[in-house]
Amino acid sequence: MAIEPGPVDTHHVNALRAFNRFYTQRIGVLAPYLGSSLSLTEVRVLYELAQQLPEGKFGAAQLGARLGLDPGYLSRILRRFEERGWLKRTPSMHDARLSLLALTRAGRSAYAPLQAKSNDEAAALLAPLRAGQQAQLVEALATVHRLLKPQAADASVQSAVLRGPQPGDMGWVVQQHGEIYAREYGFTTEFEALVAEIVAKFVRNFQSDWECCWIAALGAERVGSAFVVRKSKSVAQLRLLILAPQARGQ
Question: What is the pTM of this model?
Answer without folding.
Answer: 0.55
